[in-house]
Design brief:
Blueprint (H helix, E strand, L loop, with lengths): L1 H26 L3 E6 L3 H15 L3 E6 L1 H9 L6 E4 L2 H9 L8 E7 L1 E6 L22 E4 L5 H12 L3 H4 L3 E4 L2 H9 L5 E5 H4 L5 E6 L8 E7 L4 H10 L2 H9 L6
Parallel strand pairs: 1-2, 1-3, 6-7, 6-8
Antiparallel strand pairs: 3-10, 4-10, 5-8, 5-9
Length: 255
């Protein structure tokens, strides 16, 4: 009888240790941040600052907003998601992967047309302008199906009835950073990116700020997918004054 009690106590002790170990392991897990490619520089700075101040580690995954949202929907573990438009946040809300109460506007931006520093481009943003003459070879935008900056660019083209005229000359990129690289490498005459993306490189110049009445307001959103103390601390940190200063440093607008 004593032996049975001893074995039972031993089993209970091991189970308790296992539970405690599991809890501690869970508490020590890093925070997984999935963020739109165009936010890479400020998000890295904000996460680095958070890690120093809060003693929590973060893992960061950068890609097009649509690609990240589809990864999450397919089962990828993410604690915080930053999207470059509302469409992909709504996609996660509709699939019960984030509560709308845990979603906030994060930052704002604008579209610019970039070209290599040794290239000159003339464009008149009117329907009467012959857009084909402004494209000697190819241009690049993000893929409108998955890349918000591409969706905004297509809105601009559609507003001016340009898209069908030039679609054969468009290289669709996987994210906004890829658009920048195409132009940096001289593989495209020009490209359309966020202002914050354009100022990252000394190999391109901003030829034009695209009139903002030609596309929807560019709003970045942040969502808290896995609500626990450490994740909410980072979520709130992203919305704090220090983070706002970092975003402004990299060309984003804060309201």
């Amino acid at each position: 009888m004593k032996s049975v009690k001893h074995r039972t106590s031993t089993i209970f002790l091991f189970l308790l240790i296992g539970i405690l170990f599991s809890c501690n392991k869970h508490q020590d897990q890093s925070i997984d941040v999935f963020a739109a490619a165009g936010t890479m520089l400020p998000v890295n700075d904000i996460c680095n600052s958070f890690e120093i101040n809060q003693n929590n580690n973060t893992n960061r995954n950068f890609a097009a907003s649509g690609a990240l949202a589809r990864q999450i929907n397919a089962g990828a573990e993410a604690d915080i998601y930053i999207s470059a438009n509302k469409q992909w946040i709504d996609f996660l809300i509709q699939n019960n992967l984030v509560n709308k109460e845990n979603v906030s506007e994060f930052a704002y931006n604008k579209l610019v047309l970039i070209t290599s520093v040794d290239n000159d481009v003339y464009i008149d943003f009117t329907q009467d302008f012959d857009i084909e003459t402004a494209i000697k070879d190819k241009i690049s935008i993000g893929n409108p199906k998955y890349v918000p900056v591409g969706k905004y660019a297509k809105q601009m083209f559609d507003s001016l009835n340009w898209y069908n005229q030039i679609r054969d000359k468009i290289i669709l990129a996987k994210d906004v950073t890829s658009v920048l690289h195409y132009v940096e490498l001289g593989e495209c005459d020009w490209g359309i990116v966020y202002y914050s993306e354009a100022i990252k490189s000394d190999k391109v110049k901003i030829a034009y700020e695209i009139p903002q009445n030609l596309y929807s307001p560019i709003t970045f959103y942040i969502g808290l997918l896995n609500d626990c103390d450490k994740n909410r601390n980072l979520y709130n940190y992203f919305k704090g004054d220090q983070s706002k200063g970092i975003l402004e440093k990299y060309g984003f607008t804060i309201q």
